[in-house]
Design a protein that fits this description.
single chain; mainly alpha
């Protein structure tokens, strides 16, 4: 029986190593997926703000339903920001500073600012007031940049 027990222990040890290895791989895939989701979310948010609404603010496009739709997109995406920075998602081309993971209260304050600014941006877009939209655009840009300054690695 000792021989069998040794084989059983070896098999169990091998299985544990295989499981641990696959869990590490799964975590790496989860981190990559979280990074990809974050990058996509930020890209969509940036396009809505800087391209669609920014063109209106710069006088290159008229305030329209597209402007309101872009502001709605920003509100929707801003609501998810606090879920976009899980541990392990600082992979590949990520510009996330690792400090964001442990800076809960500060991040919550910054995210709150982004959400509040997004709401004001939507209100201004729905009102059709270009001056209010320009002011809300600046506030939104400042709120986004505040977080980027603190928790985003510099672009090289």
């Amino acid at each position: 029986m000792r021989f069998g027990s040794g084989l059983g222990a070896a098999a169990l040890g091998g299985a544990a190593l295989l499981i641990a290895s696959s869990l590490g791989s799964a975590r790496a895939e989860d981190g990559q997926a979280a990074f990809a989701h974050r990058a996509d979310t930020m890209k969509r948010m940036g396009q809505a703000l800087y391209t669609t609404i920014g063109r209106v603010v710069r006088g290159k496009a008229e305030l329209s339903d597209k402007t309101v739709s872009a502001a709605e997109t920003i509100v929707t995406l801003a609501a998810t920001i606090d879920t976009l920075f899980p541990a392990g998602s600082d992979v590949g081309d990520s510009k996330m500073k690792p400090e964001i993971i442990t800076a809960g209260p500060r991040v919550a304050d910054l995210v709150s600012g982004v959400k509040t600014a997004a709401s004001a941006l939507l209100t201004a877009a729905k009102a059709g007031d270009k001056d209010a939209l320009a002011a809300a655009y600046k506030t939104q840009d400042d709120a986004c940049e505040a977080c980027h300054r603190e928790f985003r690695k510099p672009t090289e």
